[in-house]
Amino acid sequence: MEPHKAFLASSFWLVLVIFLTISLHGVNTSNEVHHVKTHVGGLVEKDQRRTLFDTEYGDISSIEIKGGHRAPSYHLQFFTLEPNSVFLPVLLHANMVFYVHTGSGRVTWTVEDGGTRRTDLCEGDLFKLNEGCVFYIESNLEAERKKLRIYAMFANTDDTTYDPSIGAYSRINQLVKGFDIKIIQAAFKVPGDLIEAITNKTDTPAIVHANSKEHKTFWELEALVLSDFLGIPSNDKKGKTYNIFDKDPDFKNCNGWSLAVTKKKLKSLKGTNIGFLMVNLTTGSMLGPHWNPTATEIAVVLEGEGMVRVVCANRKNNEDKMEECRNMRFRVKEGDVFVVPRFHPMAQMSFNNDSLVFLGFSTAAKENYPQFLAGKRSVLGALDRHILGTSFGVSNTTIDQLFASQDDSIISGCVSCAEEEERVMKEEERKREEEKEEEQEKEQERARREEEAKREEEQARRQQEKRERRREKEARREHEKGKEEEEEEAEREREGGRKAHRRERKHVERREEEEAQREQEQARRQQEEREKRREQESGREKEEEGERGRRGGVRPHRRGDRGRSREEGAAEWEQEEARRHQEQDGDDVEDKGNRSSF
Ligand SMILES: *[C@@H]1O[C@H](CO)[C@@H](O)[C@H](O)[C@H]1NC(C)=O
Ligand SMILES: *[C@@H]1O[C@H](CO)[C@@H](O)[C@H](O)[C@H]1NC(C)=O
Ligand SMILES: *[C@@H]1O[C@H](CO)[C@@H](O)[C@H](O)[C@H]1NC(C)=O
Ligand SMILES: *[C@@H]1O[C@H](CO)[C@@H](O)[C@H](O)[C@H]1NC(C)=O
Ligand SMILES: *[C@@H]1O[C@H](CO)[C@@H](O)[C@H](O)[C@H]1NC(C)=O
After folding, report:
1. What does the pLDDT look like over 375-386, one tens digit per residue?
2. What residue stretch is flagged as signal peptide (predicted)?
């Protein structure tokens, strides 16, 4: 190897390393698209986009959209670069077709046979990048300082498919950093600390300012290497761009114009399933009802506001509520995206006070020829009038009249059409809202009733519990009261018993006392009697002694007689006493029996 070439070769590697250094700083990845919401049918407003990168020098947002639940989904990205900024290199995973909406700049990409290509970009350019290339985009610093706005659609065909799991592209720093330092060092044949310096960087934005120091170094070296080593002039082969505004529209009248870009017109669209169209409706105009027989149309509103009416291709045969196809009206404004599946007739309208400009990416492997309902090229107009009349249930003449004044315009004046559509839409929305509210109210009412029923049940249950508790308590209290009463009764009884007993005892005592008194009295009386008798006897004895003294004594006999009678009296008394005692004891027994029977 010649020394000169060897030097260049080493400087090429150096450039690659620096190239990587710039972008190798691992930022948020663009391939975290796994759990992204895919919008099905209808409208995706600007603020519903997902932000992929948001930096000081620009931002990138995306949406996933598909025409129906079973339709393939499409990925769109919206690049906005401040003037004089760079979207750092990425490896592209799927064919990408993009339209430059505002601003200017250039895109640089690698090609398979080595080296890079670049092309300048300006407003209205339509461009395609092939999957597998590494590309980056710079924005110019214009006098008007317009931002570079790019709307991109990624292809979705069998052989080149946007894969949500890996995203639309990956930043090259991520690709390199996935390897161990050793491997990278071996591959690049550079000192380890150089690699470390690269891998140590963790946070660089996806979009940087063009005049940053790193960036300058990058450009200087790139220029050196490309021109000297690869023999490619730095201002290398220019890719051709296709500018919408350089071409004559397919259709144009005072109400607007439309242009479709097919593979025939732009060869680079071959190999993608993406077609392009652009429509500009002046105030109070309409792109007549039409459908796409082979393509789903994904439109991005570029300017103004308008209304879109989409009629469902088949409303009745759908059993799945989820997939139910609805006729739709939506109001669109700049930045909104709307999708219309194939075979769904649609019409776009502008308001009386504003024009409506939108681009459309159509997805079709084959050429797509939009079919219009009305006009000279009407698909219906080509049918037999009689058959058509029968189909509509009207006479030939009605059909004749219907097609009497057809010209070949597809865009026509439609004053206040958008306004009317909006009115109907709002009306429908209001109705839906009301229905929803009604439904909600019903739901709430139902919930309330259920709640109430539950509450009542609960209350009833609680009351039942309370009652039971009360009953239990009462039962317990009664039981206790009963016991108390019993006790009281018993007490009373005991008391009563005691009293009775006392009474009795008193009675007995009194009786005993009386008895005693009586006995005493008796004893006293007997004593007195005895004494009296003794006195009388002694008096008589004295007399008898006096007599005996005169006639002799019979005293012992009489004395014995008298003694016997005295003994007899005492026994009698004792007997009487015992009987009385017995009577008393019987009373006692009777009392006791009564009490125990209680
Ligand atoms: C890389 O980071 C490690 C630890 O964070 C540090 O020790 C090392 O010096 C850094 N290397 C370079 C080249 O900056
Ligand atoms: C669309 O048409 C209007 C009115 O003719 C015009 O002012 C506007 O610049 C056009 N927009 C584009 C993008 O062509
Ligand atoms: C144009 O008219 C529509 C409907 O009447 C209205 O909602 C909108 O704000 C108007 N736009 C402008 C730019 O005046
Ligand atoms: C309608 O047209 C068919 C054939 O074109 C003709 O046979 C038929 O008489 C027409 N009917 C009327 C009511 O004009
Ligand atoms: C107990 O006394 C009551 C009156 O107090 C009387 O009716 C009843 O017959 C008596 N019982 C007995 C067993 O003598």
Report:
1. 888 888 888 888
2. 1-29
